[in-house]
Amino acid sequence: MSAKALPRSEEQALADMKNYRRIMLKMSGEVLMGDKEYGLDPETVNRVAEDIREVVAQGIQVCVVVGAGNIFRGVSGAATGMDRTTADYMGMLGIVINALALQNALEHLGVQTRVQTAIRMDAICEPYIRRKAMRHMEKGRVVIFAAGTGNPYFTTDTAGALRASEMDCDAIFKGTKVDGVYSSDPEKDPAAEHYSHISYMDVLTKDLKVMDATAISLARENNIPIIIFSVKEKGRFAEVVRSEGKFTIVTN
Ligand code: GTP
Prior knowledge:
Layout: H1 10-17, E1 22-27, H2 42-57, E2 61-66, H3 69-79, H4 84-108, E3 113-117, E4 126-127, H5 130-138, E5 142-146, H6 156-166, E6 171-176, E7 181-182, E8 194-195, E9 197-199, H7 200-205, H8 213-221, E10 226-230, H9 236-241, E11 248-251
Parallel strand pairs: 1-2, 1-6, 2-5, 3-4, 3-5, 6-10, 9-11
Antiparallel strand pairs: 7-8, 10-11
Helix pairs in contact: 2-4, 3-4, 6-8
């Protein structure tokens, strides 16, 4: 990735999107709970799986990192007052639950998948092996990376940026509840301005909460663009991958 030329402008960043061959989808676990308060909403999980299938059908290699907010919310009461490390390990187990749900939904749609986990649990899924994950993707399989980085104190955003760097991904597609980055909260401020293109530096200095600072720094160092889009709308992922619709691209 380091040999890749730096995008000089928004125009070039958008033109580069047409050449993406391998991408990372990073989404929060909350996406998978739909309108529920916590847990998994099967309809939403299926809809996300359909969205991923659409992108795979475009001939693009896809890997996925998902969070665990939907599972962890349910136990967060119990986690109050708990050691940070223990709570983080519980979160990692939550990610494995989400990864298996997504794998199941994708395979029901005929999409081949492999789950690889950062914490070994051989009876459930493969361990994370970088070169094996690459081969899976070359064969058109969707690789779902589970259990974050396997370390406490690191977020799933950081796991997404780390795996995207290791996998030589062309970009990280961060699926959220909003269709990009705004100057202020669009739900509270009707005058909030939507940014179509911003720099990693702007995200860091303006504290724009796109991803945490570790994840942004990792993406920046490895020159991997981050595309923020709304994963709540059906078909939007494939649209954004084609560089259509509303989103924000973060580059150097
Ligand atoms: P290639 O044959 O190399 O293309 O890949 P493959 O993943 O199909 O080969 P492999 O024989 O490694 O895997 C066959 C099945 O076993 C797949 O569904 C893998 O996800 C699964 N598998 C492989 N290693 C493990 C493991 O350590 N634990 C678990 N639970 N499943 C595994």
